Amino acid sequence: MTTAASTKQRILTGDTPTGPLHLGHWVGSVKRRVELQETSDCYFIIANLHAFTTRADQAREIRRDCLEIVRDYLAMGIDPDRSTIFLQTEVPAIAELTYLFAMLVPFNRVMRNPTLKDEIRDRGMGDHYSFGFPLYAVGQTADILTFRAHAVPVGEDQVPHIELTREVARRFNQYYCGVSDQAPDSDHVSLGGVFPIPVADVGTVSRLVGTDGRLKMSKSLNNAIFIKDSPKEVKKKIGRIFTGRQSPTDPGDAGNALFQYVDTFIEDPARVAELRDRYTRGDNIGDGHIKQEIAQSVNALLEPMRERRAVYEGDDDAIMDILRAGSIKANEAAEETLDLARRAAHLKFFDRELKLT
Ligand code: ATP
Ligand code: MG
């Protein structure tokens, strides 16, 4: 007999606890997750081990940020009764599969990954990054495949990681499950493969630029508007978006960072069109005025989130309960996959059991 849950499409996505969540997360991924939890079997991972790739000396802060991210999830409308929120390090199958998957990808293939290259450049890591830093890309394939997810709602920067995941899944199914290298992706499971070939489900705004007007909004680049920012902070940060335009009568470039915020956060399409028209013509409309309208819209979006967040402020026990229940459920799915993978790869010698309390 098939249960209702097993016929639903599986979703896996998540966040690294390198700081609180921001507007880029909302438009790039979380908004979509909130929709998907109505129809899909959703798993949301707090990738705390991956945070050690750049913050190995800040273990205490990583732990704090894990709880903060759950607060942000709840604020944005993720419902722990419908979705599974869990900690990466409480699901050991992921680490075990990471090691195995690392054997299925050429080292140079990982190092060619454009997202890794961008991160190394934007964070000024030079050649000082740890061995574990590029390994996180392989780890992310394990995050996804451990849950045999069909789709991964992510921002544009993550697409190369999903491509790597697809390659690993195909290779595993070919090496260990007898699936032909000519098989269409959609047939891998029906042909006996352990892993479905997952697709990236990219959000409506796939790359929200930060308040520096240049780089992707990121927790670790000091250019983010956080979900938990106060109305005043939001106003101040939006005020800082730099366009280089001098006067309200200068014709502006509606392809700039400021207009990405107009397009993304001002809801009335007629108002957006009017602003664009006046801005491009330099029809006496200053950047300052546009920033005010953006700040109003962003604050209207964030206000109900702030209210939901306030319920859990200071209540770590409630957050830990959500993470415990989620991690127990995640392990059920993960252990099932690990067992299938170990059998397929002739790695299963004995039975074992995992128990979380
Ligand atoms: P870090 O600076 O630590 O890399 P981050 O802000 O880039 O943090 P991640 O945890 O790497 O956030 O990303 C989590 C998810 O949010 C990913 O799916 C990513 O694509 C999406 N995301 C992050 N920033 C943006 C953005 N500015 N625009 C669209 N999507 C984004
Ligand atoms: Mg990132």
How would you briefly describe this protein structure?
The protein is mainly alpha-helical. The chain has helices at 4-7, 23-36, 48-55, 59-76, 92-102, 107-111, 114-122, 132-145, 159-177, 231-239, 257-265, 269-281, 287-312, 316-344, and strands spanning 10-15, 41-46, 84-87, 151-154, 199-202. The chain contains 14 helices and five strands.
What is the number of helical segments per DSSP (H or I, 4+ residues)?
Answer: 14
- Mean pLDDT comes to 95
Helicity level, as a percent range?
Answer: 40-55%
Low-confidence residue ranges = 1-5
Structural class: mainly alpha
CATH homolog superfamily of the largest domain: HUPs
Distance between the termini: 29 Å
Strand portion: 5-15%
- Give the SSE order as H and E letters: HEHEHHEHHHHEHEHHHHH
The domain tally reads: 2
Q: List the ligand species.
A: adenosine-5'-triphosphate, magnesium ion
Shape category: globular
What is the CATH architecture assignment of the largest domain?
3-Layer(aba) Sandwich
The major β-sheet equals:
3 strands, parallel
Radius of gyration: 22 Å
Please give the number of β-strands: 5
Order of the strands making up the biggest sheet: 1-2-3
Annotated CATH topology of the largest domain: Rossmann fold
Can you tell me the CATH class of the largest domain? Alpha Beta
